[in-house]
Amino acid sequence: MLALEVSILTACLDAGETGAHGFALAKAIAEAGDDRSLTATGTLYRALHRLDEAGLVESWWEDPTDAADAGRPRRRCYRITGAGANALAKAVRAEPSRRGATHTDPGFAT
To answer: Which residues face 58 on adjacent strands?
Structure first.
């Protein structure tokens, strides 16, 4: 799993059952100090789409009335799924071994 995907799943987990829209997720990732992964326009949304397709997050459009009342376009919201929480836990457990891997031989920790 890519570092950005781990950051997104973590932000979704922190957002809870109500979920969060993309900009809120990007803000949470930046506040956590993980914004180096958000290098290009659309990077976050491409990753969210991959996670949605994989069933690790679920997405939906907010109620149009809420958006109209706020005077803005509708936002797409995201929330972590059970499969996403399991994948995140697995990635977090694997993180120490990934940090120890070298660029010359990524399969072995140093």
So the answer is: 79
Class at the top of the CATH hierarchy for domain 3-99: mainly alpha
- What type of residue is 40? A
Query: What's the CA gap between 53 and 42, in Å, rounded?
Result: 16
Sequence ranges of the domains in the chain? 3-99
Q: What would the pLDDT profile of 72-96 be if each residue is shown by its tens digit?
A: 999 999 999 999 999 999 999 987 6
Cα within 13 Å of Cα(15), Cβ side: 26
Q: Which residue's structure tokens are 């929480």?
A: 85
pTM reported for the whole predicted model = 0.79
**Residue 67, phi then psi, degrees to nearest 5:** -65, -45
Under a CB-based contact definition with an 8 Å cutoff, are residues 55 and 65 in contact? no
Of 9-18, 34-43, 72-81, the range with the lowest mean pLDDT is 34-43
